[in-house]
Amino acid sequence: MQTSFSEYEYASKKRLTRRDRFLAEIETMTPWSELVAAIAGHYPKGEGRGRPPIGLERMLRMYIAQNCFGLSDEGIEDAIYDSQAIRRFVGIDLGRETAPDATTLLKFRRLLEDKQLTETIFTTINAHLAAKGLFLRRGTVVDATIIEAPPSTKNAKGERDPDMHQAKKGNEWHFGMKAHIGVDAESGLVHTVIGTAANVADVTQAQDLLHGDEEHAFGDAGYQGVDKREENIGVPVTWHVAMRPGKRRALAGHGWEQKLEWVEQIKASIRAKVEHPFHVVKNLFRHRKTRYRGLAKNTAQLHTLFGMANLVLARRLILNFDTRGASAA
Fold first, then answer.
1. Measuring CA to CA, how many Å separate 60 from each of 143, 192, 207, 318?
2. Which one of 108, 226, 241, 329 is least enclosed by Cβ atoms within 10 Å?
3. Residues 6 or more apart from 154 whose CB is under 8 A from it?
4. pLDDT at res. 179
5. 302-311 tens-digit pLDDT
6. DSSP-derived 3-state class of residue 218
7. Could you give the maximum distance between any two Cα atoms of the chain, in Å?
8. How far, in Å, CA of 311 to CA of 34, rounded?
9. Cα 68 to Cα 208: distance, rounded to the nearest angstrom
10. What do you get for the CA distance between the two ends of the chain, in Å?
11. Helix (H, G, I), strand (E, B), or coil: what is residue 38?
12. For residues 63 and 251, what is the distance between their CA atoms, to the nearest angstrom?
């Protein structure tokens, strides 16, 4: 296909923006052919009368760009018209065609939700990364974060989202849901995602966050007593749970208590890896509040978000590995 003038002008510019670099990373790391193959069986074939459907890979790219930039359906449609970088990523030349509209993306997103295909996206990405040796599966770090939901009752039913609940963190109350994740203790990549209301205790989801092959599991003080819960009795996993803050502050700092503090520091250094996916989702992807109504839709989106977060983190792991290899050489 002949390159349009605008495409040529954009390609010849000297400076790459942060958005250009970010989309180039996503382009390189995403297993497009594997994702398309995993979803293709559920996507309309365009047989018979009527307008043929837009290409699956193009809709998938638009959906991923939407999640990576924290945009609404209308927001990503506008962004395609506003940003040459996003147009190039999605694969649209406005000189020859129009961008898929917000309604088309809405239907695609509902297809993904109804068929549980966001979980398929998540598992396909993880299988791709596992094939590269990035999941070691000997240990798991578990944690959860609260994602706020709109508390407004200005809607058709005049009520807040019934799937969301209040929870107290520190001295503040939060209304929304929790994203519970299980993370590979070596690579920091997410292997399990569970969405619940915000008032669900972290420890109740701990067993479901394990993949079953690990020997060790790590959690913060909110998981105290996890090994004594009925569902965990007899499970061949050694739990390493943080000491409660008050008890840790009371340590004298000498003798055996100094050794306990040293152990706590080691456990904390391992648990720190669970914060990296949360950072990517909340800060890089700007997903600090739920976008949809209902737990099922928001949990479906979390699978896509953490799948893409794994690609971002895996890219950094590979770059760090290459840098260390070059330094050793």
1. 29, 22, 32, 25
2. 329
3. none
4. 98
5. 999 999 999 9
6. strand
7. 80
8. 14
9. 27
10. 43
11. helix
12. 51
Q: Which helix (H) or strand (E) holds 216?
A: strand 216-219
**Residue 139 parent element (H or E):** strand 139-148
The two structure tokens encoding residue 278 = 């949360």
Task: Extract the residue ranges of the chain whose pLDDT is less than 70.
Answer: 1-14, 47-50, 252-254, 320-329
Pairing of strands 139-148, 216-219: parallel
The set of residues, in sequence order, having a beta carbon less than 8 Å from that of 268 and lying 6+ positions away, is 242
Question: What are 29's strand-pairing partners?
Answer: none
In a 13 Å sphere around the CA of 3, the CA atoms on its Cβ side amount to 9
Residues 6+ apart with CB under 8 A from 197: 163, 164, 165, 177, 178, 295
Q: Which amino acid is at 103?
A: T
Sequence letter at residue 241: V
Quick one: pLDDT at residue 244? 87
* Tokens encoding 205: 């989801």
